[in-house]
Amino acid sequence: MGLPEPVLRGGALVLAALLSLAQPVAAAECLRGANAAGAEFGYNIPGVFGRDYTYPSAKTLAYLRSKGMNVVRLPFRWERLQPKLDAPFDPVELKRLTDTVKTITDLGMTVVLDPSNFAKHFDDLVGSRRVPLSSFADFWRRLAPLWAGRDDVIYLVMNEPAYIDAKDWLPANNAALAAIRETGADNFVLVAGTIWTAAVHWYADQPGGSNAEVMRGVVDPMNHFGFDIHQYLDDDYSGTKPACNKVEEAMEALKRVTAWMEETGNRAFLGEFGGYARPDCYRGLARVVGYLNSRPDIWLGWSIWAAGDWWGDYPLSIQPNENGDRPQLTAIERFIPRTRPEEKSCKALERR
Question: The domain that contains 283 carries what CATH number?
Fold first, then answer.
């Protein structure tokens, strides 16, 4: 897909210029950016690189940086990196991941590493006989040391746990946190609730207790963690329907989650939200990011869904095309700059 002129004229020249100017992002600066999808693509797992899946290009990442963004949430598949449980990582796939992380951080952006697996390895749930918690811990014990001590690399334990109750997912969160800290890695870590970790489902009844009840039991030996929360604005909050007609309900859910974070002494990151190219969605997206920006004591930031080189005409894409910037990005662009002191020294990211 083409990128707009003059932002990325010459591609490599602009990337080189951005790299030369990039300064490391201050760890305490509130995070505002986008998901860069592609490495999690494909129903054929592991699949073939370049046919079934891809990683975001340097051009796409430079475009996000040119918009003032300072964080990229990077989805990838656990099975491609570690096809066999409790075994070494695939070296070719690991290089793709490490090269992409380097491109992102060299541009002065933080990366959120996101195993996009919905609480599964292939088709088996974490915590099952086939994927015991020890294997999930092993994955993190191998991954965490690779960027240990980096303020510009955040570890997300798992993307959107689904089809598993909160009481059964809590031990997985804690096993991953323990494994990460056992390696000596003190990076900020994001954990997730269940039912796709949606704000609207935070208080939803589940056998054994809601996310709001159960996730009080998350234990991080370093107490340097937060919650990855998602919230779409359409009928079923999935991001798959055209109309953003649940904005009011979504906003109420985000406010309720904010109150929970405040009460429990936790903090959060809105890892996914988005909408179609239509006015009700533009207004909704602006309301969401405006609200999050107003609470840098609780919300360390947000990443809209989604950029990515292979989106084509996908309706939630913010990947620029031959017409220039997508209107969803235009709708929130004024909210990207960190204009107040409390946004530049983000309390939600401070070590506790």
Answer: 3.20.20.80
